[in-house]
Structure formats: C-alpha cells, structure tokens
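Subgroup meeting minutes
Present: P.N., E.W., G.H.
Scribe: E.W.

1. P.N. recapped why we're keeping a running log of single-chain structure predictions: easier to compare across weeks, and new members can see raw inputs and outputs side by side.
2. G.H. added today's entry (114 aa).
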Amino acid sequence: MSIQEYMELPYNIIVKKMNDESGVYFSATVLEFDGCMGSGDTYEDAYADVLEAMEGWIETKLENGFSVPLPMDAEKYSGKFVIRIPKTLHQELSIKAAQEGVSLNQYALYKLAH
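Output recorded in log:
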C-alpha cells in the first residue's frame, strides 16, 4: 500500500487543548502510530501538523521495511473482556462494591476509569 493509500484510511486522531509550562496550544496524536504527533496554536494547525507527521511516519516505516498498523475499528470491540484475579482481590473488590451499593462490574468499571 502507498503512503497516500494509508493517509486515506480512517485513523484515530486525537486533538487536545493543552495548558502547561509551554503555554496554551493544541496537541494532536495518532492513536495507532506510536510517537506520531503534531501541535499548533489552533485546532486546525495541530491537525494539519499531525497529518504532515503521519506522512513522514508512514514513509519511514515503509522505507525501513516495517509494517504500518491499520486503523483501529471500535466496532470490533465488544466492551467485554475476562480477567483472572486472585481470590483475595475478588473478595476485596466484591466487599467494596457492596459497600458502595453497586455491582462488582460497575465498581470495576469505575476503578478502571479512574
């Protein structure tokens, strides 16, 4: 696949407004491309910058014989996964969930999100 063909795929680009020691600006990252990012004074500038970074990222991967990840599709995720934990942790989480008056699943979701 060519660089342009990859660029036309629906990659997940995240643009966030930042306010740190550098000041106020926008930062953009490509979820599927580790280390591929851009920035700018406006949302549009950051988006344009990350698109340019994507082209370079893809080009470098292809030139060096590495594969380029395809876009992640949210449709393939069911929202369910199974995890094995020690019995003592299961007991502790169940007790805390009961104390909060919620199901173990709801409590685990809360803990994972925070």
